[in-house]
Write a structure and sequence with these properties.
Helices cover 39% and strands 14% of the residues. With 304 residues, the chain is α/β, with parallel strands linked by helices.
Length: 304
């Protein structure tokens, strides 16, 4: 009996240490592998966050962590409270020194960011996240939900999906199949089927003049649009100047029949940000289809 008790007393400290160590490890490590293959670990959720993309700003806020933001990019303007934060420039003029001075424990950037390596070289923790498609948005919600310790981050995705579904239900049969050109930039860049904008259009029953192999946001020639002859054009007001003067565009059905849906600045922001407001974007696009699509059943046209 004495020997058994002696063995227990000897083993007890080791048992306690093992349990404490296991518990600490369970609580300590949150590991995130970003979209450039970089894996980062945190012992606790980040408390000072910088976001350099509007959709990432909106996602952090929707996850309930807006109060942890200490700086955002120039274009982040939603929700309203982020307008009080330091604005840290855009893609070409990111204010690296100011970011360092803010002492963030997390900087969220897009793959297109040109300062990621520099920020890492200055000792900052940088996570790169891509948001071009519905799958990207769902994945980013999951990753940031884990990092910020949000119990059910996918509840946000379910709300987005339900709102897009409701928008799809609002489209009348005669608007389905409408051939659409969505201009992202006057260069011109278009929204392809694999982009989140193109995926929304497909959910609503529209047909895209861009083909899948062209990618999510291809740069195209104006002549391509003329040959495709879309029945409806979607475009932001900031890109509208000169649209009707483009050579040959007067022959496009959408132009000839005045079926051009123009998004104002606020709507354009919503449409261009793959994040929590994608359901709202679907509602805006659905309204466009209801108001501007041909009133008779759309028919197929020849591919360009």
């Amino acid at each position: 009996m004495k020997l058994r008790r002696l063995n227990f007393l000897i083993a007890l400290p080791l048992l306690v240490f093992s349990l404490l160590n296991t518990s600490a490890q369970a609580q300590a490590t949150v590991a995130i592998k970003d979209d450039q293959g970089q894996t980062t670990q945190w012992s606790k959720p980040p408390q000072r966050i910088v976001t350099l993309l509007p959709s990432l700003t909106e996602t952090v806020c929707e996850l309930g962590a807006c109060d942890r933001l200490v700086g955002v990019d120039r274009y982040s303007n939603y929700p309203a409270q982020v307008n009080k934060l330091p604005k840290l420039g855009g893609l070409d003029d990111t204010q690296v020194e100011t970011i360092v001075a803010l002492r963030p424990d997390l900087v969220l950037v897009a793959p297109s960011s040109r300062v990621s390596d520099r920020l890492r070289g200055l000792g900052l923790t940088v996570v790169t996240l891509e948001t071009k498609s519905y799958a990207d948005v769902q994945r980013v919600l999951t990753k940031l939900g884990q990092l910020l310790q949000v119990a059910d981050a996918q509840a946000i995705w379910r709300r987005i999906d339900a709102s897009v579904g409701a928008a799809a239900q609002s489209i009348p049969p005669q608007a389905r199949g409408t051939l659409v050109y969505y201009e992202v930039d006057r260069s011109p860049y278009a929204a392809g089927p694999s982009s989140f904008m193109g995926e929304t259009l497909a959910r609503l029953g529209g047909r895209n003049i861009i083909t899948p192999e062209m990618g999510p946001f291809p740069k195209i020639s104006p002549e391509y649009v003329v040959r495709a002859n879309p029945q409806l054009i979607m475009i932001g007001r900031r890109n509208l100047d000169g649209l009707y003067q483009r050579p040959g565009w007067d022959r496009i059905g959408a132009i000839a029949n005045k079926r051009v849906c123009v998004f104002d600045a606020e709507q354009s922001d919503v449409m261009a940000r793959p994040g929590p407001r994608m359901g709202e974007a679907a509602q805006i696009m659905a309204r466009c289809l209801r108001e501007f699509a041909p009133q008779t059943k759309a028919v197929a046209t020849a591919k360009p």
